[in-house]
Design brief:
The protein is α+β, with helices and mostly antiparallel strands and 146 residues long. It has helices at residues 33-42, 71-78, 115-144; strands spanning 22-26, 29-32, 49-53, 66-70, 101-106, 109-114. The chain is built from three helices and six strands. The strands form three sheets. It has a two-stranded antiparallel ribbon with strand order 1-2. The chain has a two-stranded antiparallel ribbon with strand order 3-4. Strand 1 (22-26) and strand 2 form a beta hairpin. The structure holds zinc ion (ZN) (3 copies).
């Protein structure tokens, strides 16, 4: 099971020790092939941002399968402290495709969240707050109008 909905683009050239496709845009300066393609198609990516393979296929360079994450978050994901595996739906059943995944930090740890659920929660929070504000205003008026 994977969280991606399109095919992997497999790099068949050289790979580095970790198994990522490797190219040499400049002599002696190896680059991850997926990173080179990403830059080509999406433009700049911050130096301290990694591209995580959502498909977990290190040879893949399909930009839709790559998620920019901070280096620390990326290390954490790969340390197994947090798993991306095995789930392609969130708790409420929304598909966890690349476009619907957001990485959020909870107590310093990255976690994957469902964007649809997040929007639902945000809307609920706003509504609650609005009701709360209105109630306060009513109470205030009630106290001050004699
Ligand atoms: Zn892939
Ligand atoms: Zn990764
Ligand atoms: Zn959801």
């Amino acid at each position: 099971m994977s969280t991606v909905d399109s095919a992997c683009w497999i790099w068949l050239g050289a790979t580095d020790q970790a198994g990522y496709g490797r190219v040499y845009p400049k002599p002696g300066k190896p680059r991850g092939y997926h990173r080179v393609v990403w830059k080509e198609l999406n433009g700049h990516i911050d130096q301290n941002m990694d591209l995580h393979h959502l498909c977990e296929n290190k040879r893949c360079y399909n930009p839709k399968h790559l998620l920019p994450v901070g280096r620390v978050a990326h290390m954490y994901i790969h340390s197994g402290g947090y798993t991306w595996r095995g789930k392609n739906k969130c708790r409420r059943g929304h598909p966890l495709t690349v476009g619907n995944i957001r990485v959020r930090f909870s107590k310093g740890y990255p976690m994957r969240v469902c964007h649809v659920c997040e929007n639902i929660k945000r809307a609920a929070w706003r509504k609650e707050n609005r009701d709360h504000c209105r109630k306060q205003l009513r109470d205030w008026r009630a106290r001050n109008v004699h």
